[in-house]
Design goal:
The complex is a heterodimer of chains A (192) and B (266). Chain A has 192 residues and is an all-alpha fold. Chain A has 6 helices and no strands. The C terminus of chain A is likely disordered. Chain B has 266 residues and is mainly alpha-helical. Chain B has one domain. Classes of the chains: A mainly alpha (192), B mainly alpha (266).
Chain lengths: 192, 266
């Protein structure tokens, strides 16, 4: 059997798998008012725990511990800080996903959407996921210097402040949209 | 009498019987009002099966005339299948006008692209032109339908189980047709037995299976009226969507800077 034939079979098998996945549908269905609830719960925003995270990643703190507590303590703290950085990175991902979800809701309720913007969002998501995994791997393997951890701390603080404002602002719009778009039998846009 | 193998004739008969049941359910439960193209597609399929039987009785299964007449009847079915699919997708996405606009464009591009490639390929290979065009149509149809369904999933739009089953049936049938056509061509080129019978049997059996799933689902479900959500003005989308993209872009920039090695200061 030729290679072309095998490739065609593989392609059709891939299509069938994609079909099955696409038809599985969203895990949960939207309930009226769920959109607004999703964004009203400000406690869920991980940016709220920013001061603690910054403290945990503070370089001066780390150096101080090294001087006073010795190498063993410094190493332990470094390990713990890495864990904190990882957890925070995951939290950032959740916030990224919040933004994406909001974008999808707004697109779903719009009378007109721009294909280029939608595809750009897909591209940005793929890029983010790739970078996220790279940074995560680097953190897991311990290939992150102290300066880089500091850079991550700055990254998080800079982004989070802007993101918090953005999520609140966009959340207000989305909540308004949800109020407008929640008649009793509205078929769902999945939210959670 | 027709020259068709008994197994094929039986499967064919069963398939036509089930199609008749599907057609009956469509009328009995009032789906024909909501799904006129789908109903026409099912009814035309039955008519085509009867027509094919008459042609085979008249000319015999090996006859070139019979082959050409049957191939000529095929485009009507393919067009109706496309219209029925478009009808279902437009019903699903009726409340989401913006997404429907995006989905049909993506599907049209996917369908047109693959079909164009298939037409060019069949033009290069005249003896197999019809078979290649037939396979190309089904491949284009499956690709565009899967693309449309992926977009529907991406936007987390729920699908009624009836629509899921009908669309899955269409897509599964097209994938089977692609594989059967490809294997058929390969078997004939390598002189492997009477592949026509196997081809006819496989296609008829799979189609009968799909019809059973449709009949069950049509019988279980009741035609319902969907209500549309109030949509937002497109200005809100125009305003917010670029902002979100900018923020996502900023996220990426920051993350990639973190990943890149930092330049050492002098």
């Amino acid at each position: 059997m030729s290679l072309t034939l095998l490739l065609l079979f593989a392609f059709v098998a891939g299509l069938l798998l994609l079909l099955a996945w696409a038809l599985r549908g969203p895990r949960t269905q939207a309930k009226p008012g769920a959109i607004s609830k999703s964004f009203e719960s400000g406690d869920r925003l991980h940016v709220n725990s920013l001061p603690q995270i910054r403290q945990a990643l503070d370089v001066a703190d780390y150096e101080f511990l090294g001087q006073k507590g010795g190498t063993a303590l410094q190493r332990r703290v470094r390990r713990e800080r890495r864990g904190i950085a990882l957890a925070y990175l995951s939290a950032l991902r959740l916030e990224f996903e919040d933004l994406l979800r909001m974008a999808r809701i707004i697109a779903g309720l719009s009378t007109e959407i721009v294909a280029l913007q939608e595809f750009e969002r897909v591209r940005l998501t793929a890029k983010f996921m790739w970078s996220f995994e790279m940074v995560r791997m680097k953190l897991l393997l311990g290939f992150v210097s102290l300066t880089q951890l500091d850079a991550l701390s700055n990254l998080i603080s800079g982004l989070s402040v802007r993101l918090e404002a953005a999520i609140k602002e966009l959340g207000e719009h989305a909540a308004l949209a949800a109020e407008l778009a929640s008649p009793p039998h509205r078929r769902g846009i999945g939210l959670t | 009498m027709t020259g068709l193998a008994n197994s094929v004739l039986w499967t064919w008969g069963v398939s036509v019987a089930i199609q008749t049941v599907v057609c009956f359910v469509l009328f009995f439960k009032g789906y024909f009002r909501k799904l006129p193209f789908f109903t026409t597609f099912v009814a035309t399929n039955i008519c085509q099966a009867v027509f094919m039987y008459i042609i085979y009785v008249q000319f015999g299964v090996k006859s070139e005339t019979a082959k050409w007449i049957i191939w000529l009847s095929e485009p009507a079915i393919l067009i109706l299948r496309t219209l029925a699919t478009a009808e279902l997708l437009s019903l699903i996405l009726k409340p989401y006008r913006g997404i429907w606009g995006l989905v049909w464009r993506v599907m049209a591009v996917g369908f047109g692209g693959v079909l164009l490639y298939a037409v060019i390929e069949s033009g290069r290979n005249i003896p197999w032109a019809i078979a290649l065009a037939h396979r190309g149509f089904h491949l284009a149809f499956a690709v565009s339908l899967v693309a449309g369904l992926l977009l529907i999933r991406y936007y987390s739009i729920s699908l009624q189980s009836l629509y899921k089953v009908i669309l899955a049936g269409f897509c599964f049938y097209s994938c089977t047709a692609v594989l059967a056509d490809t294997l058929g061509q390969w078997a004939i080129l390598h002189g492997l037995g009477d592949f026509q019978t196997i081809w006819q049997f496989t296609i008829a059996a799979i189609y009968a299976g799909i019809q059973i799933a449709w009949a069950v689902e049509l019988w279980k479900a009741a035609p319902s009226e969907e209500s549309s959500p109030a949509l937002l003005a497109s200005s809100l989308y125009q305003q917010i969507s670029p902002q979100i993209n900018e923020r996502l872009y900023a996220f990426n920039e920051q993350l990639s800077q973190f990943w890149r090695p930092r330049a050492t200061r002098p």
